[in-house]
């Protein structure tokens, strides 16, 4: 390991793997290291044995769950928005040739004690129990306004300014009820809380248009998902990096982040050898307090900074979802007197992530109290009988500096959102700090299995 590199990447989470792939394509000489013996870091997909070893070291997986190799259980559940930024990166880098995607069959929202499908077209909207007759008309006008908006044509603005007026003003103009605002803000714009309402409407407008255009691409739901689990995503980008000369080392302890007298990054020590590079990128776990020397003080926990996730094995689809093989359910915070939404993501054997007749549902939210498990009860109650469940509470870390002064670039932890848009924002942010230019993506189209 005596050769020098342009960039050393620590951790094989999706963010790190996308960056190493993009940097390799750009002609950078990349060395990618991970202390784990599997790809994906925090965003890995584990087989049965790995899952039980992580959560129940003293217990073997029950034989009735079937074969180890039939499982690829995501540690962090997220779906891909069909027209979203991650799709653009997948298509731009052509890593789609290593992946197959399947649609998520439905998107639901919890309201007044039951779940209802988020309408995927006008016919469903007309039949939807989410709104009364008059409210449907108001909502139709609201969506027509959004779809018809053209920045350069004031006639489409109806007296509103998306960059100045708040989302509250827009909702009020169309007379939308609080329940409808809830459903639009949380099940379509996918906000975790209600802070967006008092801010300018433009970001919410962008999010709603992203949702509706993603829905229009494949019908049913705006989400797609890779066969064999999300752990396939980092591996696909690792393959891309390798094609362009990137070097990978798994199961490699990282003993020290080596810096010079002024605190600038020099290299990484593993055992008795040190490998040198100009820059290092890594996930926060390599720089936390008590980690490799020079690490402490480089990351901090964000406000409301813990996520609880419960991975649940079911022997049946989620009740009330028309026996679909996959779905997302959003429980808006107002419905359960919380500050943050609760998410449920369910996948099954049709996605090659578990044995036949087993369903995997993951319930997650941002922790608000001292009893995190109690906070996800509204989600767990929707699942019906649970065969087994694995609960984790993890902190969300963010870097304390931009890394330009010491050449140490740290990514953010995965947040509580149900999709990858914030992951891509982090990729674009780190890329700009390292390369001092924006990440520009080409547009092509993505193949998805019905």
From TrEMBL:
Q: Show the Pfam families listed in the entry.
A: GDI
Name the SUPFAM superfamilies on file.
FAD/NAD(P)-binding domain (SSF51905)
Q: Which InterPro entries match?
A: FAD/NAD-bd_sf, GDP_dissociation_inhibitor, RabGDI
What's a single GO BP term from this record? protein transport
GO MF term list: Rab GDP-dissociation inhibitor activity
Assigned GO CC terms: cytoplasm
Entry similarity comment: Belongs to the Rab GDI family.
Q: What is this protein called?
A: Rab GDP dissociation inhibitor
Q: Which organism is it from?
A: Jaapia argillacea MUCL 33604
């Amino acid at each position: 390991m005596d050769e020098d590199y342009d960039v050393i990447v620590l951790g094989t989470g999706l963010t790190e793997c996308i960056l190493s792939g993009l940097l390799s394509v750009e002609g950078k000489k990349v060395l990618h290291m991970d202390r784990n013996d599997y790809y994906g870091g925090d965003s890995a997909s584990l087989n049965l044995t790995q899952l039980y070893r992580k959560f129940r070291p003293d217990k073997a997986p029950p034989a009735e769950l079937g074969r180890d190799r039939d499982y690829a259980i995501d540690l962090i559940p997220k779906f891909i928005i069909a027209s979203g930024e991650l799709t653009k990166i997948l298509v731009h880098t052509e890593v789609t040739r290593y992946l197959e995607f399947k649609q998520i069959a439905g998107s639901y929202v919890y309201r007044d004690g039951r779940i209802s499908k988020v309408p995927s077209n006008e016919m469903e909207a007309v039949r939807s129990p989410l709104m009364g007759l008059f409210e449907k008309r108001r909502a139709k006008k609201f969506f027509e306004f959004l779809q018809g908006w053209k920045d350069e044509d004031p006639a489409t603005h109806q007296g509103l300014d998306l960059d100045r007026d708040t989302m509250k003003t827009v909702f009020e103009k169309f007379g939308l009820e609080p329940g409808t605002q809830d459903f639009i803000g949380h099940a379509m714009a996918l906000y975790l809380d209600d802070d967006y309402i008092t801010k300018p409407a433009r970001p919410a407008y962008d999010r709603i248009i992203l949702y509706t255009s993603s829905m229009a691409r494949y019908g049913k739901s705006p989400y797609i998902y890779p066969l064999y689990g999300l752990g396939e995503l980092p591996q696909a980008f690792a393959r891309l990096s390798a094609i362009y000369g990137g070097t990978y080392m798994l199961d490699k302890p990282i003993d020290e982040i080596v810096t010079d007298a002024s605190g600038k990054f020099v290299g990484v020590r593993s055992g008795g050898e040190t490998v040198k590079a100009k820059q290092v990128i890594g996930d926060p776990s390599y720089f936390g307090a008590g980690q490799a020397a020079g690490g402490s003080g480089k990351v901090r926990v964000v406000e409301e900074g813990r996520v609880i996730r419960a991975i649940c094995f079911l022997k049946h689809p989620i009740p009330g979802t028309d026996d679909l093989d996959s779905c997302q359910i959003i429980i808006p915070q107002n419905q359960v007197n919380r500050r943050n939404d609760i998410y449920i993501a369910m996948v099954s054997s049709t996605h090659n992530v578990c044995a036949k007749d087993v369903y995997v549902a993951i319930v997650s939210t941002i922790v608000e109290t001292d009893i995190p498990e109690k906070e996800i009860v509204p989600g767990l109650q929707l699942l019906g009988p649970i065969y087994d469940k694995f609960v984790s509470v993890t902190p969300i870390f963010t870097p304390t500096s931009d890394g330009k002064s010491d050449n140490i670039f740290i990514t953010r932890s995965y947040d509580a959102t149900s999709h990858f848009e914030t992951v891509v924002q982090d990729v674009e942010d780190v890329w700009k700090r390292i390369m001092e230019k924006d990440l520009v993506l080409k547009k092509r189209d993505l193949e998805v299995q019905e």
